[in-house]
Amino acid sequence: MTRQPKFDLHAGTTSLYLDPTYYDYEYKDRSADVRWYCDRYKDAGGTVLELGVGTGRIALRAAKAGTWIVGLDLSETMLAQAAERRAALPKKAQGNLELVRGDMRRFAFDERFSLISCPFNAFQHMYTREDAEACLAAVRTHLAPDGLFLFDVLMPDLDYLNRPAFKTYAGVKFKHPRHGCHFTYAEQTAFDVVSQLNQMRFLYDRVDPKEEGPESYSVQLSHRYFFPQELEALLHYNGFQVLCHYGDFELGELRADCESQVLVCRLR
User: Fold this and answer.
1) d(Cα 78, Cα 15) in Å, to the nearest integer?
2) Which of 46, 54, 125, 170 lies 20 to 30 Å from 105 when distance is taken between CA atoms?
3) Per-residue model confidence (pLDDT) at position 16
4) Is residue 248 within 8 Å of 260, Cβ to Cβ?
5) What is the distance between the alpha carbons of residues 174 and 188, in angstroms, rounded to a whole number?
6) Torsion angle, CA of 11/98/239/39, rounded to 10 degrees?
7) What span, in angstroms and rounded, lies between the C-alpha atoms of 17 and 106?
8) How confident is the model at residue 5 (pLDDT cuts 50, 70, 90)?
9) Are 236 and 242 spatial neighbours (Cβ–Cβ below 8 Å)?
10) Side-chain half-sphere exposure of 175, counting CA atoms within 13 A
C-alpha cells in the first residue's frame, strides 16, 4: 500500500505567506474585492480595523485615498512587505495605515472601530468552532455599536472538494518573480468532510536545470469551508445580524456556482 503524504496544519497556516513577493505576484490581477472593500472603508466614517491585512493589497489603496486603517496580521513577513509598500506611498498617506502583529482570535485595542473587515478568505483559517467564535468575540468587543463587520469566504465547490485526495493536477508554467527562473506548477488537495478542512499542497518544479534557483519546492495552504446556512447560524449565535450575503463583489445573488460569499454584518 502506498503511503499518502501528510499535510501539516501549521504549514498550511504559514507557508503561503513566507514569500510575500510571490504572494503579490500570484494575486496581482485580483481587483474586484479591492474596489469593494475600499468603497466600504471610505464610507465608514472612522478608523477601520482590517484583520489579515497581509501585504496591504487592500489597505494601502484605501490609505492612499485617505482612510485611516489599523492592519492586523500574524505573519511577520507579510507585515514587512506591507511596511515596505507603505513607505512608497505619499508622505501624508503613510500615516493613514498602522500595522500591528497579532492573532485575529485574540487582539486588544483601546478603541472601537466603525468598520472591521476580514478580507480574502482569511476567516477560513479559523479551523474550529472555537477559533471562529474567538475571532467573532474579539470583533464584537471592538466594533462600534452602529459599526459594520465585513468579510468574505469561498463558497464550497463540491466538485473541487470531492476530487480524489492527493491526486496531482498539473498547472501552468511561469517565471518566478523572486527566483527569476521558470517553474511548472501542480496541486494536490485532500478534503476532510468531518472537519470541513481542505488541505492543499502546491508543487513547483524548475523547468530548465541550467537556470539558477531551487530545483523544486512545495507550499501548503489549509482552509476551513463554511456552508452558507452554517455561516449565518454561526454569526447569529455569536451576536451578529447578517445584513447582506452576496455571491460576489458586484453584489450579485448568492448561488451554488458562486466563487465567494461576501457578508455585511452588524451587532445584533
Assistant:
1) 11
2) 46
3) 97
4) yes
5) 18
6) -100
7) 20
8) low
9) yes
10) 3
How far lies 39's CA from each of 6, 35, 36, 225, in Å? Answer: 42, 6, 5, 27
- The larger pLDDT score, comparing residue 5 to residue 73, is at 73
Identify the residue whose cell numbers are 474550529. Answer: 128
Instruction: Detail the DSSP E strand segments found in 31-161.
Output: 48-51, 69-73, 97-101, 113-118, 143-154
Q: What is the pLDDT of residue 218?
A: 95
- DSSP H/E element including 186: strand 182-192
For residue range 136-152, list pLDDT tens digits in order. 999 999 999 999 999 99
Residue with cell 513566507: 18
Cα–Cα distance, 253 to 268 (Å, whole number)? 23
The predicted-structure confidence for 189-237, as pLDDT tens digits, reads as follows 999 999 999 999 999 999 999 999 999 999 999 999 999 999 999 999 9
The sign of the CA dihedral 19, 22, 25, 26 is negative
Rounded Cα distance between 97 and 79, Å, is 12
Question: What is the distance between the alpha carbons of residues 176 and 166, in angstroms, rounded to a whole number?
Answer: 24
> Is residue 256 scored above 90 in pLDDT?
yes
Radius of gyration of the chain (CA): 19
For range 93-112, the mean pLDDT: 98
Q: What is the DSSP string of 112-134?
A: -EEEEEE-TTGGGG--SHHHHHH
Q: What is the pTM of this model?
A: 0.96
* Average pLDDT score over the chain: 96
Which three cell numbers mark 64?
Answer: 492612499
Rounded to an integer, what distance in angstroms lies between the CA atom of residue 57 and that of residue 42? 16
Instruction: Determine the residue type at 164.
Output: P
What Å distances lie between residue 256 and 49, 196, 253, CA to CA?
Answer: 30, 17, 10
| Residue that has been written with the C-alpha cell 452602529 in this structure | 146
Q: Count Cα neighbours of 96 within 13 Å in the Cβ-side half-sphere.
A: 22
